[in-house]
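Problem: given the chain below (274 residues), write out its structure.
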Amino acid sequence: MKTEHELKVLVKEKYGQIALQSKAQNESSCCGATSCCGPSDAMDYTIMSESYEHLDGYAPDADLGLGCGLPTEFAQMQEGHTVVDLGSGAGNDCFVARAVVGDQGRVIGLDMTEAMVDKARQNAAKMGFDNVEFHLGDIENMPLETNLADVVVSNCVFNLVPDKQAALAETYRILKPGGHFSISDIVLQGEIPQALQEAAEMYAGCVSGAIPKEDYLGLIQKAGFQDIEVQKQRSIELPDSILSEYLTPEVLREFRNSGTGIFSVNVFARKPLK
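Solution.
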């Protein structure tokens, strides 16, 4: 298994490549970042995404199809709110949030990949927004002030973070007392095969970094949050064409018959007032 540092380097490299492509290019290539389909390049990074096209503020140039849910749709944002998007990518969720918080609000995107931050800033400049900003940083150690945000959103990012407890502690810190988050992420029911757990490509694709739902919710509670609620859950079906790159036919059959489930969830939680 790779070290935390190696995993972060892997994610930066993969998402740096993806930042240079459009959503259409990501969908038309088998792995989202290259045109090859070898064993280490089989993951389709758009396979878990949901359509944003019905949401106000949707910006096609900022949509790379990399999420696993619609956290902004459930985030209970209001006009004038300050919203922070963790792992903001090319800015998709930030621009949707901006349509809700309006001119008097503030939207802050944070991403650890330089190419994504550059792309998001270019998209914001094209739309003329002066209250949407993007910063380079690590969500385990955010370069943001304490008690800053009314709302935090994140879309399929915490699975890419080796130290999820640190990331949740930082999320708690930057939220105002009484503020809340709405996070889309991948969780498990049961255990995925060891070969998938060890596959770096599957980690970057949010699968092998997933943990059981009960453990995920437990980490949120441990961080001090309350009013924890799963707002939405849907099953993710990875096709055999992807899984067979990592699993032997026998292990694949066992996995299909094991009852293990991979789910996209949208989780809400609130920081206490005191």
